[in-house]
Amino acid sequence: MDVNEIIHETTERKKGEMIVFASAKGGVGKTIISVNIAVALAKKGFSTCILDANFQFGDVNLALDIQPKLTISDVIHDVESLNSDMLANYLQKHESGVKILSAPLKPEYADLITTTAIETICDKILEENGFLIVDLSSGLSEHNISFMEKADKIMLITDLEMAALKNTKTMLKTIKALELEEKTKIIINRGDMESVIKFKDIKNILNIEDLYFISDNFKVVSKSFNIGIPFVISKPKEKISNEIVNLATQFYRSNSLLKGRRRRGRRKKTGLFGVFKKSK
Ligand SMILES: Nc1ncnc2c1ncn2[C@@H]1O[C@H](COP(=O)(O)OP(=O)(O)O)[C@@H](O)[C@H]1O
Ligand SMILES: [Mg+2]
């Protein structure tokens, strides 16, 4: 199946694929990777939206050099009557074609976003876009769990630092208890960074077979973030850009919609404590 057929199928069904980028610890590369993946998908011709779900300290705008005019805080005022045409007014378009739904302008506004609003907003975005990429905050807040439950894929990101790996292992246990393990994959970002732990050790540490590798390239990544131009645009020939493009290619090749699989179950809200009580 070629790209045009995939685009055609995805558009015809009017339901996109939702991929969330999560991590146990901050600073491991969620924003960098999710933004560049979104741009890579848009460059391939897929209608792609990125939602900045780091509701307190979102920086997707920074990574794309966009000044947010409207944010998700504005959408929630209209959420009851929201339709996809209205939603389009809240999305800002990047030159790559990626549409952005920005995080609130102030951290305190994060608390006003309900999980029901999240559900409605994601549904409306998915009606009109081939891909919804979500850049989460770190950890397992109720917001993050509701995004993870709704997603088709959860990409859990870590680097080779001991603290990140230890917390990723713990987070994987919770993901298992929430029965989200099947759709979770691990990205080892900076997989060749200086560390006592090596990429080849990770399978044993995390007890997981499927790992994606993104290389360490501080010069390219940090410059790209600071000037607000994703490296898949500014440095398309770099190894790290190729790795991102390959990952994006796997996303549309494995698009679960095309295989008719789609599960969007809702968990009774019990909080993390309830999850573990139930799974004992
Ligand atoms: N592959 C990489 N190589 C080098 N530096 C990276 C890489 N990925 C991320 N970084 C650096 O790590 C920092 C944190 O990345 P970011 O995407 O903001 O993490 P998160 O969103 O998980 O908090 C960035 O400032 C970036 O420069
Ligand atoms: Mg981030």
TrEMBL record:
Superkingdom of origin organism: Bacteria
InterPro entries, alphabetized: AAA_dom, P-loop_NTPase, ParA/MinD_ATPase
Molecular function (Gene Ontology), one example: ATP hydrolysis activity
GO BP term (any one): negative regulation of cell division
Domain AAA: 17-186
An example Gene Ontology CC term for this record: cytoplasmic side of plasma membrane
Name under which the protein is recorded: P-loop NTPase
Organism the protein comes from: Oceanirhabdus seepicola
